[in-house]
Amino acid sequence: MKDAGWIEGRNLETRIVSIMGSGKTPADAAADAIALSADVILAITPVAAEALHRRTSVNPVVFVVGFFSPVEKGFAAAINKPGGNMTGIDELEPSLGGKWAQLLKQIDSNISRVGIVSNPDEGTIPAQLLQMIKQSAGGVAIGVADLPIRNEAEIENVISNFASNPKGGLIFLSDIFTAAHRAQIIAATNAHRIPAIFPYRYYAVDGGLAAYSPDQPSEFRQAAYFVDHILRGEKPGDLPIQTPNKYELVINLKTAKALGLTIPAGMLSVADELID
Q1: Which residue range is the domain that position 150 belongs to?
Q2: Is residue 21 part of a domain?
Q3: What confidence tens digit (pLDDT) does each residue in 148-201 have?
Q4: How many domains is the chain partitioned into structurally?
């Protein structure tokens, strides 16, 4: 925003509205954000975007971070011409799901089955993404099982049950529950010695084996483009929705060693970050 000429305290004022630790629901946060009468609202996560979509068709909204289909969700009429009050960045690149399955097979060629972990109660995982994971897994001779985890008590049970059969790997999808409980999830996954791919870099930083995802700092730089144009008078509905312009592969070598895995040299050479 500074590069575009917007300086906090001079010609720009920002407010943060969050449900973290507040006891509020996403609907509450959406109402609070709208009450600020801001010139534009930045919605971080699909849950925030969904809550705002239900609350307003007038206030300009820019969404960023999250795997969802804005057209399928009703946020926009079309990718090139959203037409309403919402636009932004959609991380849903269906081939991404296939990449996760392929990376797991590269990490451990013995993997013959994969569990897809998410919280279905949030309703934020697009069908296209699941379909691509399953198609790609079939292409590399991997069977697929859906592993729903709805609450903290289920984490250990679901992961330990999956680990009871050999040659398994896990793909964790992006939702608020998984992110909020990632310490417990990573600990259980590593304790049961299961290779796993996570949806964002911070999972690997916190001890997860590997992550392949859009580069989030780059996404927020993209989001600044939308905010800048809206503040200068353009309508969200006239700004085409974008996809991330940069992806990153992060591998935690310390975790790989603890799991007894040797990461292929070719994979190491293309990784954007190696954590040791």
Answers
A1: 95-213+248-275
A2: no
A3: 999 999 999 999 999 999 999 999 988 888 988 999 999 999 999 999 999 999
A4: 2
